[in-house]
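Progress against Task 2.4 (sequence-to-structure conversion) is shown through the following example record, which the project officer requested during the mid-term review.
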Amino acid sequence: MFFIFSKVLSFLMNLLLWVFAFLLIALFSKNVKRKKKFLLWGILLLYIFSNSVLINAVSWAWDIRDTNIQPNKKYSCAIVLGGFSSDDGRGGGFFNMAADRFIQGLRLQRMGRVDKLLLTGGNGLLMPSAYREADWTKEQYKDLQVPDSCLLIENKSRNTIENAAFTKQLLQTQKLKGPYLLVTSAFHMRRSMMIFKKQGIDVIAYPCNFSTRNFSFSAEDLLPNAGAMAGWGTYIKEGIGYVVTVLFK
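Structure tokens generated for the chain above:
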């Protein structure tokens, strides 16, 4: 139920959907006053959320960009959260824009900073196919000569809450001692850390896939930008997930 609720809520919070709805109401409304009002709301909503100033400020305040791993310490495990690949519709997968999670897991293993890579991710679609991200990811690591003995697979989870719950079971089965490195995108790290710690898993943030490392502003940021509008989907989803987890978990 929680899984379906979060999916529906994220859909209803799609900003472009609201812009489109306001403009449609303005287009078909016969009341001149209502037509002008909804047209203005649609334009204002589109402009406010399509310039980069606000989304950059939210990113700067929300993202976790730093790690406090100890120099020269080798950790028992790095937990690599899924979400960096997608189903190709033919039984395989392909890397998406969050692929830095995969890269940083590989770097940690190659640099000798971790003994194990725990890959957690199943299929988060409401109507899932047979594709399981962790299984596909394991094959990609093996292609890059990562030993099978270094890879642990959790392929049942559909979201971050299930990532943490199933990962905890696997860590206990393997008798691996913490702290563990948690590898995920900077925008996703705040919610992930909260969820994993709620499960009693001792994790250290190892963020990646940064949208920015320094806050900056220029006149161009005031212009409409399709990328800024798209970025809101990410942060709205994170915000919803964070609040719902606090309230109901």
